[in-house]
Sequence to fold (632 residues):
Amino acid sequence: MPDGPHFRFLLGSLALQNLGRRKARALLLVAAMTVCSGALLTGAVLMRSIETSMAVGFTRLGADMLIVPAGTLTNITAALLTAEPTELTLDDDMLPRLAELKGVRKIAPQLIFRTDASGYGRGGDLVDLIAFDPARDMTVQPWLEQHLDRPLRQGDVIVGGRRQEALGSELLLFGRPLVVYGRLGKTAVGTHERGLFITFETLAQLREVMQQICGTKAALEPNKLSGVLLELAPGATTQQIRFAALANFPGIKVVAGDTMLTSIRQGLAGLLNGMLGLMAIMFASAMLMVSVLFSAIVTERRRELGLLRAIGARRGQVLGVLLTEAALATGAGGLAGCVVGVLLMRVYEHSLVYHLENLGIPFVWLNGGTMALIALLCILFASLIGAAGALCPAWRASREEPYDLIRSEG
Amino acid sequence: MLSCSKVSKTYVTERGPMEAVNGIDLDLPAGGFTAVVGPSGSGKSSLLAMIGGLSRPTGGAVRIEGTDIWALPDDRLAHFRNGRIGFVFQFPSLLPTLRVVDNVALPALLARRCDSSSVYQRASELLDRLGVSQHLDAYPGEISAGEQRRAAIARALINAPALLLADEPTSDLDAATEGEIMEQFRELTRADAMTLLMVTHNLRLAEQADRIVHIAGGRLQA
Fold:
Protein backbone atom coordinates (compact mmCIF):
# COMPACT_ATOMS: atom_id res chain seq x y z
CA MET A 1 0.00 0.00 0.00
CA PRO A 2 1.55 3.36 -0.96
CA ASP A 3 2.01 6.18 1.55
CA GLY A 4 -1.26 8.08 1.98
CA PRO A 5 -1.56 11.79 1.16
CA HIS A 6 -1.91 12.75 4.82
CA PHE A 7 1.25 10.83 5.70
CA ARG A 8 3.18 12.41 2.85
CA PHE A 9 1.86 15.81 3.93
CA LEU A 10 3.00 15.11 7.49
CA LEU A 11 6.51 14.10 6.37
CA GLY A 12 6.67 17.14 4.07
CA SER A 13 5.53 19.33 6.90
CA LEU A 14 8.13 17.69 9.17
CA ALA A 15 10.84 18.56 6.63
CA LEU A 16 9.57 22.12 6.27
CA GLN A 17 9.30 22.72 10.01
CA ASN A 18 12.74 21.25 10.60
CA LEU A 19 14.09 23.98 8.33
CA GLY A 20 12.22 26.55 10.42
CA ARG A 21 13.93 25.33 13.61
CA ARG A 22 17.28 26.79 12.58
CA LYS A 23 16.16 29.84 10.66
CA ALA A 24 19.59 31.46 10.29
CA ARG A 25 21.14 28.26 8.97
CA ALA A 26 18.25 27.61 6.59
CA LEU A 27 18.40 31.20 5.35
CA LEU A 28 22.15 30.90 4.71
CA LEU A 29 21.56 27.74 2.70
CA VAL A 30 18.77 29.43 0.75
CA ALA A 31 21.00 32.49 0.20
CA ALA A 32 23.88 30.35 -1.10
CA MET A 33 21.58 28.60 -3.54
CA THR A 34 20.06 31.96 -4.51
CA VAL A 35 23.51 33.14 -5.59
CA CYS A 36 24.22 29.91 -7.49
CA SER A 37 20.83 29.76 -9.15
CA GLY A 38 20.79 33.48 -9.96
CA ALA A 39 24.24 33.18 -11.54
CA LEU A 40 23.15 30.08 -13.45
CA LEU A 41 19.99 31.71 -14.80
CA THR A 42 21.72 34.96 -15.73
CA GLY A 43 24.73 33.13 -17.13
CA ALA A 44 22.67 30.63 -19.11
CA VAL A 45 20.35 33.26 -20.58
CA LEU A 46 23.21 35.64 -21.40
CA MET A 47 25.31 32.83 -22.86
CA ARG A 48 22.49 31.60 -25.04
CA SER A 49 21.67 35.19 -26.03
CA ILE A 50 25.32 35.88 -26.87
CA GLU A 51 25.45 32.65 -28.88
CA THR A 52 22.34 33.70 -30.79
CA SER A 53 23.75 37.18 -31.29
CA MET A 54 27.02 35.63 -32.49
CA ALA A 55 25.09 33.41 -34.85
CA VAL A 56 23.41 36.49 -36.30
CA GLY A 57 26.27 38.97 -35.96
CA PHE A 58 29.41 36.93 -36.51
CA THR A 59 27.97 34.73 -39.19
CA ARG A 60 27.33 37.92 -41.10
CA LEU A 61 31.07 38.37 -41.13
CA GLY A 62 31.29 35.32 -43.35
CA ALA A 63 32.85 31.89 -43.28
CA ASP A 64 36.36 31.21 -42.05
CA MET A 65 37.47 29.44 -45.23
CA LEU A 66 36.29 28.70 -48.73
CA ILE A 67 37.13 25.67 -50.85
CA VAL A 68 36.82 26.12 -54.62
CA PRO A 69 38.09 24.22 -57.66
CA ALA A 70 41.79 24.75 -58.36
CA GLY A 71 42.16 27.43 -61.04
CA THR A 72 39.19 29.48 -59.86
CA LEU A 73 39.90 33.18 -59.71
CA THR A 74 38.90 34.46 -56.26
CA ASN A 75 38.28 37.99 -55.15
CA ILE A 76 39.60 38.12 -51.58
CA THR A 77 37.46 40.23 -49.28
CA ALA A 78 37.24 40.37 -45.52
CA ALA A 79 33.95 38.52 -45.70
CA LEU A 80 33.64 35.12 -47.32
CA LEU A 81 29.94 35.10 -48.07
CA THR A 82 29.68 33.21 -51.32
CA ALA A 83 31.75 31.11 -53.66
CA GLU A 84 32.82 32.76 -56.92
CA PRO A 85 31.06 32.41 -60.29
CA THR A 86 33.13 29.97 -62.30
CA GLU A 87 32.88 27.33 -64.98
CA LEU A 88 34.87 24.96 -62.75
CA THR A 89 33.08 22.66 -60.35
CA LEU A 90 33.61 20.27 -57.45
CA ASP A 91 31.77 16.98 -56.93
CA ASP A 92 29.43 16.99 -53.94
CA ASP A 93 30.56 13.50 -52.86
CA MET A 94 33.48 15.28 -51.13
CA LEU A 95 31.11 16.84 -48.57
CA PRO A 96 30.85 13.99 -46.01
CA ARG A 97 34.64 13.59 -45.85
CA LEU A 98 35.16 17.35 -45.71
CA ALA A 99 32.71 17.65 -42.81
CA GLU A 100 34.67 14.98 -40.94
CA LEU A 101 38.03 16.78 -41.23
CA LYS A 102 39.35 17.51 -37.74
CA GLY A 103 38.79 21.19 -36.93
CA VAL A 104 35.87 21.71 -39.32
CA ARG A 105 32.71 22.69 -37.46
CA LYS A 106 30.30 23.46 -40.29
CA ILE A 107 30.29 23.25 -44.05
CA ALA A 108 27.97 25.11 -46.43
CA PRO A 109 28.03 24.04 -50.10
CA GLN A 110 27.03 26.51 -52.82
CA LEU A 111 26.72 26.46 -56.56
CA ILE A 112 26.86 29.68 -58.58
CA PHE A 113 25.65 29.87 -62.14
CA ARG A 114 26.25 33.17 -63.90
CA THR A 115 24.02 33.71 -66.92
CA ASP A 116 22.49 36.39 -69.11
CA ALA A 117 19.94 33.99 -70.56
CA SER A 118 17.58 33.64 -67.61
CA GLY A 119 15.12 36.17 -68.96
CA TYR A 120 15.44 38.14 -65.74
CA GLY A 121 14.88 41.90 -65.83
CA ARG A 122 14.99 43.37 -69.34
CA GLY A 123 15.76 39.97 -70.78
CA GLY A 124 19.54 39.93 -71.06
CA ASP A 125 20.59 41.03 -67.60
CA LEU A 126 23.54 39.24 -66.09
CA VAL A 127 22.42 37.22 -63.09
CA ASP A 128 24.29 35.17 -60.48
CA LEU A 129 21.98 32.34 -59.53
CA ILE A 130 23.28 30.91 -56.24
CA ALA A 131 22.05 27.56 -54.97
CA PHE A 132 22.54 26.84 -51.26
CA ASP A 133 21.48 24.29 -48.65
CA PRO A 134 19.28 26.06 -46.03
CA ALA A 135 20.06 23.40 -43.39
CA ARG A 136 23.81 24.01 -43.61
CA ASP A 137 23.88 27.60 -44.79
CA MET A 138 25.83 30.13 -42.72
CA THR A 139 26.10 33.16 -45.01
CA VAL A 140 22.75 33.68 -46.74
CA GLN A 141 19.95 33.39 -44.18
CA PRO A 142 21.79 35.40 -41.45
CA TRP A 143 21.57 38.34 -43.85
CA LEU A 144 17.84 38.05 -44.42
CA GLU A 145 16.43 41.46 -43.56
CA GLN A 146 12.91 40.90 -44.84
CA HIS A 147 11.08 37.68 -45.54
CA LEU A 148 7.61 36.21 -45.83
CA ASP A 149 6.01 35.00 -42.61
CA ARG A 150 6.61 31.30 -43.31
CA PRO A 151 9.58 28.96 -43.77
CA LEU A 152 11.58 28.99 -47.00
CA ARG A 153 10.42 26.32 -49.45
CA GLN A 154 10.98 24.90 -52.91
CA GLY A 155 10.09 27.44 -55.63
CA ASP A 156 11.19 30.42 -53.49
CA VAL A 157 13.95 32.87 -54.35
CA ILE A 158 15.83 35.22 -52.02
CA VAL A 159 17.12 38.36 -53.69
CA GLY A 160 20.35 40.19 -52.87
CA GLY A 161 20.36 43.55 -51.11
CA ARG A 162 20.50 45.58 -54.30
CA ARG A 163 17.53 43.88 -55.94
CA GLN A 164 14.19 45.67 -55.85
CA GLU A 165 11.55 42.91 -56.17
CA ALA A 166 8.68 43.07 -53.69
CA LEU A 167 8.30 40.28 -51.19
CA GLY A 168 5.74 37.70 -52.32
CA SER A 169 5.91 38.82 -55.96
CA GLU A 170 6.61 36.42 -58.80
CA LEU A 171 9.96 36.48 -60.54
CA LEU A 172 10.42 34.66 -63.87
CA LEU A 173 13.66 32.74 -64.31
CA PHE A 174 14.09 30.66 -67.45
CA GLY A 175 10.36 31.10 -67.94
CA ARG A 176 9.54 29.54 -64.59
CA PRO A 177 7.82 31.61 -61.87
CA LEU A 178 9.55 31.78 -58.48
CA VAL A 179 8.15 33.52 -55.38
CA VAL A 180 10.31 36.24 -53.85
CA TYR A 181 10.64 34.92 -50.29
CA GLY A 182 13.05 37.49 -48.86
CA ARG A 183 15.66 40.15 -49.39
CA LEU A 184 19.16 40.23 -47.93
CA GLY A 185 20.88 43.20 -46.36
CA LYS A 186 23.63 45.05 -48.21
CA THR A 187 27.00 43.40 -47.68
CA ALA A 188 29.36 45.28 -49.98
CA VAL A 189 30.18 41.92 -51.55
CA GLY A 190 29.00 42.28 -55.15
CA THR A 191 28.07 38.66 -55.85
CA HIS A 192 26.13 38.54 -52.61
CA GLU A 193 24.32 41.84 -53.14
CA ARG A 194 23.28 41.09 -56.72
CA GLY A 195 22.71 37.36 -56.37
CA LEU A 196 19.46 35.43 -56.60
CA PHE A 197 19.50 32.69 -54.00
CA ILE A 198 17.59 29.44 -54.41
CA THR A 199 17.76 26.08 -52.69
CA PHE A 200 19.40 23.09 -54.34
CA GLU A 201 15.90 21.57 -54.63
CA THR A 202 14.70 24.59 -56.60
CA LEU A 203 17.80 24.36 -58.79
CA ALA A 204 16.98 20.70 -59.52
CA GLN A 205 13.48 21.79 -60.50
CA LEU A 206 14.92 24.35 -62.98
CA ARG A 207 17.83 22.24 -64.24
CA GLU A 208 16.14 20.77 -67.31
CA VAL A 209 14.91 24.11 -68.66
CA MET A 210 18.25 25.75 -67.84
CA GLN A 211 20.08 23.06 -69.82
CA GLN A 212 17.70 23.57 -72.73
CA ILE A 213 18.32 27.30 -72.74
CA CYS A 214 22.01 27.50 -71.79
CA GLY A 215 23.27 24.29 -73.31
CA THR A 216 25.46 21.73 -71.58
CA LYS A 217 27.40 23.34 -68.76
CA ALA A 218 29.38 21.61 -66.04
CA ALA A 219 27.61 23.66 -63.35
CA LEU A 220 24.23 22.41 -64.53
CA GLU A 221 25.09 18.76 -64.13
CA PRO A 222 23.66 17.09 -61.02
CA ASN A 223 25.78 16.83 -57.86
CA LYS A 224 28.13 19.69 -58.77
CA LEU A 225 29.28 22.56 -56.55
CA SER A 226 31.09 25.83 -57.14
CA GLY A 227 32.54 25.91 -53.64
CA VAL A 228 32.15 25.02 -49.99
CA LEU A 229 32.25 27.57 -47.16
CA LEU A 230 33.79 26.34 -43.91
CA GLU A 231 33.45 27.40 -40.29
CA LEU A 232 36.24 26.22 -38.02
CA ALA A 233 35.86 24.62 -34.59
CA PRO A 234 37.37 26.41 -31.56
CA GLY A 235 41.12 25.81 -31.50
CA ALA A 236 41.45 24.89 -35.19
CA THR A 237 43.68 27.05 -37.40
CA THR A 238 43.27 27.96 -41.05
CA GLN A 239 46.73 26.48 -41.78
CA GLN A 240 45.76 23.17 -40.24
CA ILE A 241 42.57 22.94 -42.32
CA ARG A 242 44.32 24.16 -45.47
CA PHE A 243 46.93 21.36 -45.24
CA ALA A 244 44.34 18.73 -44.35
CA ALA A 245 42.03 19.75 -47.20
CA LEU A 246 44.79 19.93 -49.82
CA ALA A 247 46.12 16.54 -48.72
CA ASN A 248 42.72 14.90 -48.93
CA PHE A 249 41.13 16.57 -51.94
CA PRO A 250 43.26 17.01 -55.06
CA GLY A 251 42.22 19.71 -57.52
CA ILE A 252 40.98 22.23 -54.98
CA LYS A 253 42.02 25.69 -53.91
CA VAL A 254 41.66 26.83 -50.31
CA VAL A 255 40.91 30.46 -49.52
CA ALA A 256 41.12 31.76 -45.95
CA GLY A 257 39.12 34.71 -44.71
CA ASP A 258 40.17 37.30 -42.16
CA THR A 259 42.01 35.30 -39.46
CA MET A 260 41.27 37.98 -36.87
CA LEU A 261 37.53 37.38 -37.23
CA THR A 262 38.11 33.64 -36.95
CA SER A 263 40.14 34.18 -33.78
CA ILE A 264 37.46 36.42 -32.24
CA ARG A 265 34.72 33.89 -33.03
CA GLN A 266 36.77 31.02 -31.64
CA GLY A 267 37.82 33.06 -28.60
CA LEU A 268 34.22 33.92 -27.75
CA ALA A 269 33.12 30.31 -28.15
CA GLY A 270 35.96 29.30 -25.82
CA LEU A 271 34.97 31.99 -23.31
CA LEU A 272 31.38 30.75 -23.25
CA ASN A 273 32.57 27.19 -22.67
CA GLY A 274 34.81 28.49 -19.89
CA MET A 275 31.83 30.21 -18.24
CA LEU A 276 29.94 26.95 -18.41
CA GLY A 277 32.85 25.21 -16.71
CA LEU A 278 32.94 27.84 -13.96
CA MET A 279 29.22 27.36 -13.32
CA ALA A 280 29.73 23.62 -13.07
CA ILE A 281 32.47 24.22 -10.46
CA MET A 282 30.21 26.64 -8.57
CA PHE A 283 27.42 24.07 -8.39
CA ALA A 284 29.81 21.32 -7.36
CA SER A 285 30.95 23.59 -4.49
CA ALA A 286 27.32 24.23 -3.56
CA MET A 287 26.69 20.49 -3.47
CA LEU A 288 29.68 19.95 -1.17
CA MET A 289 28.43 22.76 1.07
CA VAL A 290 24.97 21.16 1.30
CA SER A 291 26.64 17.86 2.09
CA VAL A 292 28.71 19.35 4.93
CA LEU A 293 25.66 21.21 6.27
CA PHE A 294 23.48 18.11 6.21
CA SER A 295 26.19 16.06 7.89
CA ALA A 296 25.87 18.52 10.78
CA ILE A 297 22.05 18.49 10.62
CA VAL A 298 21.95 14.69 10.69
CA THR A 299 24.37 14.58 13.64
CA GLU A 300 22.19 17.09 15.47
CA ARG A 301 19.02 15.10 14.86
CA ARG A 302 20.24 11.55 15.29
CA ARG A 303 17.88 10.90 18.21
CA GLU A 304 14.84 12.09 16.24
CA LEU A 305 15.79 9.94 13.27
CA GLY A 306 16.22 6.99 15.62
CA LEU A 307 12.77 7.67 17.07
CA LEU A 308 11.25 7.73 13.62
CA ARG A 309 12.86 4.36 12.92
CA ALA A 310 11.69 3.03 16.32
CA ILE A 311 8.06 3.83 15.62
CA GLY A 312 8.27 1.96 12.31
CA ALA A 313 9.60 4.34 9.67
CA ARG A 314 11.46 2.47 6.97
CA ARG A 315 14.96 3.44 5.93
CA GLY A 316 13.62 4.89 2.69
CA GLN A 317 11.15 7.08 4.59
CA VAL A 318 13.87 8.52 6.84
CA LEU A 319 15.99 9.12 3.77
CA GLY A 320 12.98 10.77 2.12
CA VAL A 321 12.43 13.22 5.01
CA LEU A 322 16.05 14.38 4.90
CA LEU A 323 16.21 14.64 1.12
CA THR A 324 12.88 16.49 1.01
CA GLU A 325 14.22 18.93 3.57
CA ALA A 326 17.36 19.58 1.50
CA ALA A 327 15.46 19.81 -1.78
CA LEU A 328 12.92 22.26 -0.27
CA ALA A 329 15.66 24.56 1.04
CA THR A 330 17.73 24.56 -2.13
CA GLY A 331 14.63 24.68 -4.34
CA ALA A 332 13.52 27.80 -2.46
CA GLY A 333 17.01 29.18 -3.07
CA GLY A 334 16.63 28.28 -6.74
CA LEU A 335 13.34 30.17 -6.92
CA ALA A 336 14.78 33.23 -5.18
CA GLY A 337 17.80 32.98 -7.50
CA CYS A 338 15.53 33.17 -10.52
CA VAL A 339 13.97 36.39 -9.20
CA VAL A 340 17.46 37.81 -8.59
CA GLY A 341 18.55 36.61 -12.05
CA VAL A 342 15.64 38.40 -13.75
CA LEU A 343 16.52 41.60 -11.88
CA LEU A 344 20.17 41.23 -12.89
CA MET A 345 19.15 40.82 -16.51
CA ARG A 346 17.14 44.01 -16.30
CA VAL A 347 20.31 45.74 -15.11
CA TYR A 348 22.26 44.25 -18.06
CA GLU A 349 19.52 45.33 -20.42
CA HIS A 350 19.89 48.93 -19.27
CA SER A 351 23.68 48.92 -19.26
CA LEU A 352 25.77 46.48 -21.30
CA VAL A 353 23.14 45.55 -23.88
CA TYR A 354 22.09 49.19 -24.30
CA HIS A 355 25.71 50.22 -24.99
CA LEU A 356 26.27 47.32 -27.39
CA GLU A 357 23.18 48.23 -29.36
CA ASN A 358 24.25 51.89 -29.42
CA LEU A 359 27.47 50.66 -31.02
CA GLY A 360 25.41 48.85 -33.64
CA ILE A 361 26.13 45.40 -32.26
CA PRO A 362 22.84 43.52 -32.16
CA PHE A 363 21.98 41.67 -28.95
CA VAL A 364 19.29 39.05 -29.42
CA TRP A 365 17.58 38.09 -26.13
CA LEU A 366 16.13 34.62 -25.82
CA ASN A 367 12.35 34.51 -26.09
CA GLY A 368 10.21 34.50 -22.95
CA GLY A 369 9.25 30.83 -23.20
CA THR A 370 12.87 29.70 -23.38
CA MET A 371 13.79 31.95 -20.46
CA ALA A 372 10.93 30.51 -18.39
CA LEU A 373 12.10 27.00 -19.26
CA ILE A 374 15.67 27.82 -18.19
CA ALA A 375 14.34 29.33 -14.92
CA LEU A 376 12.31 26.16 -14.27
CA LEU A 377 15.39 24.05 -14.97
CA CYS A 378 17.41 26.24 -12.55
CA ILE A 379 14.89 25.60 -9.76
CA LEU A 380 14.82 21.89 -10.54
CA PHE A 381 18.60 21.76 -10.70
CA ALA A 382 18.92 23.61 -7.38
CA SER A 383 16.55 21.08 -5.76
CA LEU A 384 18.52 18.21 -7.24
CA ILE A 385 21.80 19.71 -5.98
CA GLY A 386 20.29 19.87 -2.48
CA ALA A 387 19.05 16.30 -2.59
CA ALA A 388 22.33 15.06 -4.08
CA GLY A 389 24.36 16.95 -1.45
CA ALA A 390 22.27 15.55 1.41
CA LEU A 391 22.22 12.04 -0.03
CA CYS A 392 25.47 10.82 1.51
CA PRO A 393 24.84 11.89 5.16
CA ALA A 394 21.15 10.93 4.91
CA TRP A 395 22.01 7.53 3.47
CA ARG A 396 24.56 6.87 6.22
CA ALA A 397 22.03 7.82 8.92
CA SER A 398 19.31 5.67 7.38
CA ARG A 399 21.64 2.63 7.42
CA GLU A 400 22.42 2.94 11.13
CA GLU A 401 20.61 0.91 13.76
CA PRO A 402 17.78 2.83 15.45
CA TYR A 403 19.24 2.23 18.90
CA ASP A 404 22.63 3.67 17.87
CA LEU A 405 20.82 6.78 16.61
CA ILE A 406 18.65 7.08 19.73
CA ARG A 407 21.40 6.74 22.32
CA SER A 408 23.78 9.20 20.63
CA GLU A 409 23.78 12.69 22.08
CA GLY A 410 23.41 14.50 18.75
CA MET B 1 4.68 -14.34 23.79
CA LEU B 2 8.30 -13.18 24.11
CA SER B 3 11.19 -15.58 24.02
CA CYS B 4 14.85 -14.58 24.23
CA SER B 5 17.31 -17.34 23.59
CA LYS B 6 20.98 -16.81 24.52
CA VAL B 7 20.79 -13.18 23.49
CA SER B 8 24.15 -11.41 23.55
CA LYS B 9 25.39 -7.99 22.60
CA THR B 10 29.02 -6.98 22.26
CA TYR B 11 29.92 -3.40 21.36
CA VAL B 12 33.16 -2.67 19.56
CA THR B 13 34.85 0.26 21.28
CA GLU B 14 38.23 1.96 20.92
CA ARG B 15 39.38 0.06 23.99
CA GLY B 16 38.31 -3.25 22.47
CA PRO B 17 35.08 -5.30 22.57
CA MET B 18 32.68 -4.64 25.44
CA GLU B 19 30.13 -7.26 26.36
CA ALA B 20 26.86 -5.55 27.36
CA VAL B 21 24.53 -8.56 27.36
CA ASN B 22 25.80 -12.08 27.76
CA GLY B 23 23.62 -15.03 26.73
CA ILE B 24 20.32 -14.06 28.32
CA ASP B 25 17.37 -16.47 28.18
CA LEU B 26 14.03 -14.88 28.99
CA ASP B 27 10.45 -16.03 28.39
CA LEU B 28 7.38 -13.90 29.04
CA PRO B 29 3.78 -15.07 28.69
CA ALA B 30 1.19 -12.89 26.97
CA GLY B 31 -0.18 -10.17 29.25
CA GLY B 32 1.34 -9.10 32.51
CA PHE B 33 3.81 -6.53 33.72
CA THR B 34 7.47 -7.47 34.02
CA ALA B 35 10.19 -5.21 35.35
CA VAL B 36 13.86 -5.63 34.48
CA VAL B 37 15.92 -4.19 37.30
CA GLY B 38 19.62 -3.53 37.43
CA PRO B 39 22.21 -0.86 38.06
CA SER B 40 23.41 1.54 35.37
CA GLY B 41 25.53 -0.27 32.76
CA SER B 42 24.09 -3.67 33.62
CA GLY B 43 22.85 -4.17 30.04
CA LYS B 44 19.12 -3.73 30.67
CA SER B 45 18.61 -1.01 28.04
CA SER B 46 20.65 -2.99 25.48
CA LEU B 47 18.46 -6.03 26.19
CA LEU B 48 15.32 -3.93 25.71
CA ALA B 49 16.69 -2.53 22.41
CA MET B 50 17.33 -6.06 21.11
CA ILE B 51 13.86 -7.21 22.18
CA GLY B 52 12.36 -4.14 20.50
CA GLY B 53 14.12 -4.69 17.17
CA LEU B 54 16.22 -1.55 17.57
CA SER B 55 19.65 -3.15 17.97
CA ARG B 56 20.79 -6.37 16.35
CA PRO B 57 22.08 -8.97 18.83
CA THR B 58 25.59 -10.29 18.24
CA GLY B 59 24.28 -13.70 19.27
CA GLY B 60 21.04 -15.53 20.05
CA ALA B 61 17.47 -14.98 18.88
CA VAL B 62 14.45 -12.92 19.89
CA ARG B 63 10.99 -14.32 19.13
CA ILE B 64 7.82 -12.29 19.54
CA GLU B 65 4.55 -14.13 18.98
CA GLY B 66 6.62 -16.85 17.29
CA THR B 67 8.40 -14.50 14.86
CA ASP B 68 12.19 -14.50 14.94
CA ILE B 69 12.36 -10.74 14.54
CA TRP B 70 16.06 -10.54 13.68
CA ALA B 71 15.57 -12.98 10.80
CA LEU B 72 13.26 -10.44 9.12
CA PRO B 73 14.56 -8.14 6.37
CA ASP B 74 14.91 -4.53 7.50
CA ASP B 75 11.68 -3.16 6.00
CA ARG B 76 9.63 -6.07 7.40
CA LEU B 77 11.26 -5.59 10.79
CA ALA B 78 10.27 -1.90 10.64
CA HIS B 79 6.72 -2.99 9.79
CA PHE B 80 6.71 -5.50 12.67
CA ARG B 81 8.05 -2.90 15.11
CA ASN B 82 5.41 -0.48 13.93
CA GLY B 83 2.51 -2.88 14.41
CA ARG B 84 3.44 -5.17 17.30
CA ILE B 85 5.79 -3.18 19.57
CA GLY B 86 5.28 0.11 21.36
CA PHE B 87 8.09 2.12 22.93
CA VAL B 88 8.21 4.59 25.79
CA PHE B 89 11.67 6.10 26.25
CA GLN B 90 13.37 7.70 29.24
CA PHE B 91 13.73 11.06 27.46
CA PRO B 92 11.21 13.42 25.84
CA SER B 93 10.61 11.54 22.63
CA LEU B 94 7.94 13.51 20.79
CA LEU B 95 9.03 15.11 17.52
CA PRO B 96 9.18 18.81 18.42
CA THR B 97 8.01 20.08 15.03
CA LEU B 98 4.75 18.10 15.00
CA ARG B 99 1.63 18.78 17.08
CA VAL B 100 0.90 16.37 19.94
CA VAL B 101 -1.94 14.73 17.99
CA ASP B 102 0.28 14.35 14.89
CA ASN B 103 2.98 12.72 17.02
CA VAL B 104 0.45 10.21 18.35
CA ALA B 105 -1.02 9.56 14.90
CA LEU B 106 2.34 9.17 13.13
CA PRO B 107 2.93 5.42 13.79
CA ALA B 108 -0.58 4.61 12.55
CA LEU B 109 -0.08 6.75 9.45
CA LEU B 110 3.19 4.91 8.87
CA ALA B 111 1.31 1.60 9.20
CA ARG B 112 -1.11 2.64 6.43
CA ARG B 113 -3.73 0.23 7.73
CA CYS B 114 -6.62 2.69 7.91
CA ASP B 115 -7.59 6.12 6.69
CA SER B 116 -6.25 9.25 8.35
CA SER B 117 -9.59 10.39 9.81
CA SER B 118 -9.97 7.18 11.84
CA VAL B 119 -6.30 7.40 12.85
CA TYR B 120 -6.83 10.91 14.21
CA GLN B 121 -10.05 9.80 15.90
CA ARG B 122 -8.15 7.03 17.73
CA ALA B 123 -5.27 9.41 18.57
CA SER B 124 -7.75 11.82 20.18
CA GLU B 125 -9.38 8.98 22.16
CA LEU B 126 -6.01 7.77 23.47
CA LEU B 127 -4.95 11.28 24.46
CA ASP B 128 -8.30 11.66 26.22
CA ARG B 129 -7.80 8.36 28.05
CA LEU B 130 -4.33 9.48 29.18
CA GLY B 131 -5.63 12.88 30.27
CA VAL B 132 -3.98 15.14 27.70
CA SER B 133 -6.90 15.73 25.34
CA GLN B 134 -6.75 19.46 26.02
CA HIS B 135 -3.35 19.59 24.24
CA LEU B 136 -4.18 17.98 20.90
CA ASP B 137 -3.04 20.96 18.86
CA ALA B 138 -0.17 21.98 21.12
CA TYR B 139 3.47 21.44 20.21
CA PRO B 140 5.54 19.30 22.60
CA GLY B 141 7.51 22.33 23.80
CA GLU B 142 4.24 23.90 25.01
CA ILE B 143 3.28 21.14 27.47
CA SER B 144 4.85 19.73 30.66
CA ALA B 145 7.28 16.78 30.83
CA GLY B 146 4.59 14.57 32.39
CA GLU B 147 2.10 15.45 29.67
CA GLN B 148 4.73 14.75 27.04
CA ARG B 149 5.36 11.32 28.59
CA ARG B 150 1.62 10.55 28.57
CA ALA B 151 1.43 11.61 24.92
CA ALA B 152 4.41 9.31 24.22
CA ILE B 153 2.48 6.44 25.85
CA ALA B 154 -0.52 7.28 23.66
CA ARG B 155 1.77 7.14 20.62
CA ALA B 156 3.10 3.74 21.77
CA LEU B 157 -0.49 2.46 22.01
CA ILE B 158 -1.87 3.83 18.74
CA ASN B 159 -1.32 0.60 16.77
CA ALA B 160 -2.54 -1.60 19.69
CA PRO B 161 0.82 -3.41 20.07
CA ALA B 162 1.17 -6.82 21.67
CA LEU B 163 4.28 -5.75 23.54
CA LEU B 164 4.94 -2.42 25.23
CA LEU B 165 8.56 -1.66 26.08
CA ALA B 166 9.35 1.11 28.55
CA ASP B 167 12.91 2.22 29.23
CA GLU B 168 13.09 4.15 32.55
CA PRO B 169 9.78 5.84 31.61
CA THR B 170 9.55 8.02 34.72
CA SER B 171 13.22 8.85 35.24
CA ASP B 172 12.84 12.62 34.88
CA LEU B 173 9.32 13.02 36.32
CA ASP B 174 8.15 14.16 39.76
CA ALA B 175 6.72 11.64 42.21
CA ALA B 176 3.06 12.48 41.57
CA THR B 177 3.40 12.17 37.78
CA GLU B 178 5.47 9.02 38.22
CA GLY B 179 2.62 7.50 40.24
CA GLU B 180 0.04 8.42 37.57
CA ILE B 181 2.16 6.92 34.78
CA MET B 182 2.69 3.69 36.72
CA GLU B 183 -1.07 3.46 37.40
CA GLN B 184 -1.70 3.86 33.66
CA PHE B 185 0.78 1.03 32.92
CA ARG B 186 -1.00 -1.30 35.37
CA GLU B 187 -4.35 -0.34 33.85
CA LEU B 188 -3.05 -1.19 30.36
CA THR B 189 -1.95 -4.66 31.38
CA ARG B 190 -5.26 -5.25 33.21
CA ALA B 191 -7.76 -3.77 30.77
CA ASP B 192 -5.94 -4.27 27.46
CA ALA B 193 -4.17 -7.56 28.29
CA MET B 194 -0.98 -6.00 26.99
CA THR B 195 2.46 -7.42 27.76
CA LEU B 196 4.53 -4.72 29.41
CA LEU B 197 8.28 -4.95 29.90
CA MET B 198 9.76 -2.06 31.84
CA VAL B 199 13.42 -1.40 32.50
CA THR B 200 14.29 0.52 35.65
CA HIS B 201 16.99 0.87 38.24
CA ASN B 202 14.32 1.88 40.78
CA LEU B 203 13.37 -1.15 42.88
CA ARG B 204 10.37 0.69 44.39
CA LEU B 205 8.85 1.10 40.92
CA ALA B 206 9.73 -2.46 39.96
CA GLU B 207 7.78 -3.75 42.93
CA GLN B 208 4.58 -2.62 41.23
CA ALA B 209 5.19 -5.18 38.43
CA ASP B 210 3.81 -8.75 38.39
CA ARG B 211 7.31 -10.13 37.90
CA ILE B 212 10.80 -8.76 38.53
CA VAL B 213 13.89 -9.85 36.62
CA HIS B 214 17.32 -8.80 37.94
CA ILE B 215 20.20 -8.16 35.60
CA ALA B 216 23.83 -7.40 36.41
CA GLY B 217 26.96 -7.53 34.28
CA GLY B 218 24.90 -8.46 31.24
CA ARG B 219 23.51 -11.65 32.85
CA LEU B 220 20.20 -12.44 34.52
CA GLN B 221 20.50 -13.02 38.26
CA ALA B 222 18.79 -15.91 39.94
Chain A touches chain B through 33 residues (CB under 8 Å). Residues 5-58+266-407 of chain A form one domain. The mean pLDDT of chain A is 84.
